[in-house]
Amino acid sequence: MSPARCFSVVVLLSALSGCGGGDDYTDLDAYMNEMRLHGPGKIEPTPVFQSYPAFTYNAANLRSPFSPQISTDLAARRRGSGNVKPDLGRVKQYLEGFNIEQFEMVGTLSNASGSYALLRGAGGVHRLKVGDYLGRNDGRIVAISGSQVDVVEIVSDGQGAWLERPRTIPLKEHS
């Protein structure tokens, strides 16, 4: 056997002899005896949680505080008249197939032919002028300013007559 090989066997045997030597568990035995004398520790009881009364949100059917108020006085709820009615023979424009609530004004555009409102909705941004229609209630644009678009819709009063309902689409800032 070569001296290098003999040296490596001696080192290996000395390392293995250190793993199994001495049964010195005195510190562990002392700790276990101390634990047996004092018994198990005291376990604190679980905390008692107070139950709170259930809260029912009752304002779900009310107007959102972030939308403008609508006047509900009785004078504004007038009866429809016989001379106001939708033009059933008129060819519907593309934007009349969508709810007016989904449109938002994002800007204006002016050139030599007039002033236009830029409305986002119905899958894109649309350029509209005074006299154009949008929404499902025969909404006709009556005025365009830098801050809003004024629309007049023709809606049923529920008693067989029609009335005009003004709507405003405000300019959406930072769009």
UniProtKB/TrEMBL annotation:
It comes from the Bacteria. Pfam families: PilP. This is Pilus assembly protein PilP. It comes from Pseudomonas fluorescens.
